[in-house]
């Protein structure tokens, strides 16, 4: 089922998730994965309903809160997104993606110090992920810490030479 999602064959994936749910309606990963697929189709409210049902079945699964947080962020419901990211972290979800997404959400809320802290934590967990440095640089730019921002953009490019966001951000400083 997940393979169809990964192949971006979302409608087929949904059909398979629905079939699997009929066979095993109390299995939370099905609703979580269906929610992720619906999010890819920009059917955000349906995605949230699936995440909520997955949480009802398995309230201690941090991955569900993480995915719900991403969906809420995409709906620009930033405070709700943060609550879900924080709850996932409370459940011991030490995944760099959660700190990355929490940092982006905090940046949107102009809570730049907290955003930096989350990007730094994500970098400790996954130091070779280019977008972390790009987003950290964007946040440093908000503090007018241009040299540090440039250093992060340069490092993002070193890790991923075709990172257009980092090149764009360098241009915004120069």
Descriptive notes:
This protein is an all-alpha fold and 174 residues long. It contains eleven helices and no strands. The protein has helices at residues 2-6, 10-23, 28-40, 44-57, 62-74, 78-90, 96-108, 112-125, 130-142, 146-159, 164-173. α4 packs antiparallel against α5 (62-74), α9 runs parallel beside α11 and α10 runs antiparallel to α11 (164-173). The chain is elongated and about 55 Å long. The N and C termini lie far apart (47 Å). 38% of the residues are buried. The model has no long low-confidence stretch (mean pLDDT 94).
Summarize the structure.
The protein is mostly helical and 174 residues long. It contains eleven helices and no strands.
How are the SSEs ordered, and which strands pair?
Elements: H1 2-6, H2 10-23, H3 28-40, H4 44-57, H5 62-74, H6 78-90, H7 96-108, H8 112-125, H9 130-142, H10 146-159, H11 164-173
Helix count?
11
Computed over alpha carbons, the radius of gyration is 18 Å
Can you count the beta strands?
A: 0
What's the helix-strand series?
Answer: HHHHHHHHHHH
What can be said about the biggest beta sheet? none
- The percentage of residues in β strands lies in under 5%
Structural key phrases:
single chain, 78% helix, mainly alpha, 0% strand, 174 residues, elongated
């Amino acid at each position: 089922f997940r393979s169809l999602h990964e192949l971006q064959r979302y409608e087929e994936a949904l059909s398979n998730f629905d079939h699997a749910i009929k066979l095993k309606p109390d299995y939370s990963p099905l609703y979580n994965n269906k929610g992720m697929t619906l999010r890819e189709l920009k059917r955000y409210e349906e995605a949230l309903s699936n995440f909520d049902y997955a949480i009802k079945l398995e309230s201690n699964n941090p991955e569900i809160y993480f995915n719900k947080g991403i969906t809420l962020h995409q709906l620009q419901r930033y405070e709700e997104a943060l609550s879900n990211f924080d709850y996932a972290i409370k459940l011991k979800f030490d995944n760099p993606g959660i700190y990355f997404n929490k940092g982006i959400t905090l940046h949107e809320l102009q809570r730049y110090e907290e955003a930096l802290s989350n990007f730094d934590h994500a970098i400790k967990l996954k130091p070779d992920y280019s977008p972390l440095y790009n987003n950290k640089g964007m946040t440093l730019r908000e503090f007018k810490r241009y040299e540090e921002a440039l250093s992060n953009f340069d490092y993002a490019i070193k890790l991923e030479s075709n990172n257009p966001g980092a090149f764009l951000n360098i241009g915004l400083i120069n």
